[in-house]
Amino acid sequence: MSRRVSWRQRLRVAIDASGRKHSAIAADAGITPVTLSRILNAVDVNPSFETVVRIAHAVDENVGWLIEEPGFALSGDQLKKLVATLDFLETTLLKASMPRPPAAAAAPNATVDKESDIPRREQVRGARLVYRALDASMSDAGIAEGDVVFVKPTSDLRAADGLVIVCRLGGAELLKQLELGAGRIRLLSRNRRYTPIDVTRKDELELIGIVVGRSGPPAI
Questions:
Q1: CA–CA gap between residue 204 and residue 105 (Å, rounded)
Q2: What DSSP string runs through the chain?
Q3: With contact defined as beta carbons under 8 Å apart, do 168 and 206 qualify?
């Protein structure tokens, strides 16, 4: 069975925790240092409730906690720490629950080509779609502006990792290289003049397919 802690012991703990000198506490409470010492150490001294309240206020403590009033199970210092913890958790949970911003709008650099036929070789590789490159962002991958690319349809991101793909992001159709990392999706250009695109939400990205061939002037 735990020993009951008296209000005097609680008051001594509160005074020690405050770090203030007894003379300063006594002055704020409107009593002498001698009176404060007697209250803390002489069990036969019973100060008035008003005096206890003034001492509690001088050390920024809850009177209810000192006298074990129901509903005051925590000291003032414990309450401050609890409030700080709750504020931190509320802020953290609020940030976690906020929707992540959509990916920045990207300029489309691919468009459907309805005029070009799919060569037999690319058909064998699974190509069913034809797109045309609208810029030079994939030039280092051998795809120049104006080139036609043949696309094998798939929605499997893992199967497309590291490959040149055609996808749709924010309504824009893109010809990029897919890079998957730990919780990260990036669309890379193969031209240093073009910056990567970070996909902030997986559900924003629609994989159209993997590029399995191209048609155009010979790559330089």
A1: 11
A2: -PPPPPHHHHHHHHHHHHT--HHHHHHHHTS-HHHHHHHHH-TT----HHHHHHHHHHTT--HHHHTT-TT--S-HHHHHHHHHHHHHHHHHHHHHHSPPPPPPP----EEE-SSPPPPHHHHHTT--EEEEE-SSTTGGGT--TT-EEEEEE---HHHHTTSEEEEEETTEEEEEEEEEETTEEEEE-SSTTS--EEES-GGGEEEEEEEEEEESSPP-
A3: yes
3.40.50.720, 1.10.260.40, 2.60.40.10, 1.10.1610.10: which CATH number matches 7-97?
Answer: 1.10.260.40
Query: Are 208 and 167 contacting, i.e. CB atoms less than 8 angstroms apart?
Result: yes
Q: Per-domain residue ranges for the chain?
A: 7-97, 110-215
Nearest in space to 112 (alpha carbons), one of 133, 135, 91: 133
The structure tokens listed for 195 are 């910056």
pTM: 0.53
**CA-CA distance, 24 to 15, in Å (whole number)?**
11
Query: Which residues pair with residue 172 across a beta bridge?
Result: 169
Q: 116-163: per-residue pLDDT in tens?
A: 999 999 999 999 999 999 999 999 999 999 999 999 999 999 999 999
Does domain 110-215 fall under CATH 2.10.109.10? My reply is yes
CA distance 150 to 152: 7
